[in-house]
Specification:
single chain, 21% strand, globular
């Protein structure tokens, strides 16, 4: 049975989410504040985390950051009542896999959760990426001082571990698998996120920017993950 952790302080929304996820066959655990949610996220194993941004005791940004820093790669979808783009960008940069702005349709949340779970399941073996790709991942791929170990889901640079989120690793893997080919933002949304209609291409750009900060010698002038203006991105080894 899938386990979902809901970190949310609005009682009505918690009840609605608990009932809906339960009816879909999920085992539900809830936390009403950031401290409790962080403790549960660190001590128990979940398949997905639904995380509110505005929480008592510790906000969603801090919870997301601390989970990722502690090596928790469980997919996180962030809920926010804020409409500012900067809040969504910050959440994604801290390691959230997706976000929804309140109020939202319950069916859309479930669709996004299911898409994240599908991608999480398919990435565990790291044998093949995507139904459209028949190329197998190499065990280890190296470019410059960066080394990517697909089986251990580990990225190192200058022999030091690089802290990448699960989504960033999947994105990097897909780009490497299609080295030399230009891939569009829509393709990346479909193949890495699992959908291409429920989010925006800005999500891809944010993750690309974050990856560049971590693996490029000069992120402002990237040599490995290059932008093909008007089309998308290309990995150049």
């Amino acid at each position: 049975m899938r386990r979902v952790l809901i970190i949310e302080d609005e009682p009505g929304l918690v009840m609605a989410l608990t009932q809906r996820f339960g009816s879909e066959g999920y085992e539900v655990e809830t936390a009403a504040d950031g401290e409790q949610g962080l403790a549960l996220g660190l001590s128990e194993v979940f398949d997905i985390i639904v995380l509110d941004l505005m929480l008592p005791r510790r906000n969603g940004f801090d919870v997301c950051r601390d989970l990722r820093q502690q090596g928790i790669n469980t997919p996180i979808i962030m809920l926010t009542a804020r409409g500012q783009v900067v809040d969504r960008v910050v959440g994604l940069k801290l390691g959230a896999d997706d976000y929804l702005t309140k109020p939202f349709a319950m069916m859309e949340l479930l669709a996004r959760v299911e898409a994240l779970l599908r991608r999480s399941d398919s990435s565990r073996a790291f044998v093949e990426i995507g139904a459209s790709s028949k190329r197998r991942s190499p065990g280890v791929f190296q470019f410059g001082t960066v080394r990517v170990d697909f089986r251990q889901t580990l990225v190192t640079r200058d022999d030091k571990a690089v802290n990448v989120s699960a989504r960033e690793f999947k994105l990097l893997q897909y780009l490497i698998e299609h080295s030399g080919a230009t891939v569009s933002r829509d393709e990346l949304l479909n193949e890495v996120w699992g959908y291409n209609t429920l989010t925006t291409t800005r999500t891809v750009d944010v993750h690309i920017s974050s990856l560049r900060q971590k693996i490029e010698e000069d992120p402002r002038h990237p040599k490995s993950i290059v932008t093909i203006h008007g089309f998308g991105y290309k990995f150049v080894s």
